[in-house]
Amino acid sequence: MTQNNATPPKHYRMKEELSWNERKRWAKDLFIELEKTIPEIAKIITADESTVRGWIQEGSWDGVKRSLLISKKAQLKRYYDFLEEQDKNYKTGGGETNTRNLDAINKLTAAINNLENEDSVCDTIIVAEQFTNWLLLRDVAFARKVTLQFDAFIKQKLAA
Fold first, then answer.
1. Chunked in runs of 10, what are the mean pLDDT values of the chain (160 residues)?
2. How many whole angstroms separate alpha carbon 62 and alpha carbon 155?
3. Could you read off the pLDDT of 119-132 as tens digits, one per residue?
4. Which of 132, 130, 86, 89 is nearest to 105 (CA)?
5. Which of 47, 60, 57 is nearest to 21 (CA)?
6. What is the DSSP string of 8-29?
7. Which of 39, 60, 92, 138 has the highest Cβ tally under 10 A?
8. Structural domain boundaries in the chain
9. Is the pTM of this model over 0.85?
10. d(CA 137, CA 120)
11. In this predicted structure, what is the pLDDT of residue 127?
12. C-alpha distances in angstroms, 69 versus 6, 16, 33, 75, 89?
């Protein structure tokens, strides 16, 4: 739910005043998606900085933010680029077997296989947001319950 400005997303405008849960979700979007600072977030959502700081710690938003920065797609691209570089070095080196290069290639191949066969936290977050945004249009109360469960699930995945 990327926003280009600090206005609340449309589904937050159902009431004149935002609930604390809605403010918290908006704060999370501002922190993760728009990379706003704690003071900026507090001012935008009209809350204390200590409240925002507490939400960030409680929800492990730093971990979520890092997970999105190091997406599976970005990691795979880096690994494939490095693997291609190793292959070129092997070919231009006269085809000599270098155990250090072979070890690097084996490790890269294993890392690529792990990434391609494993769901990342980033993928989970994207699906969770898409689903809850879809659900918000159908059943707001249920969407709020599902969002809490998704948040708990994502926190557990980040801790693993």
1. 48 58 88 87 92 93 76 77 80 66 80 71 81 87 88 79
2. 11
3. 667 778 888 888 98
4. 86
5. 47
6. PPGGGTTSSS--HHHHHHHHHH
7. 60
8. 1-58, 72-116, 120-160
9. no
10. 27
11. 86
12. 21, 34, 10, 10, 29
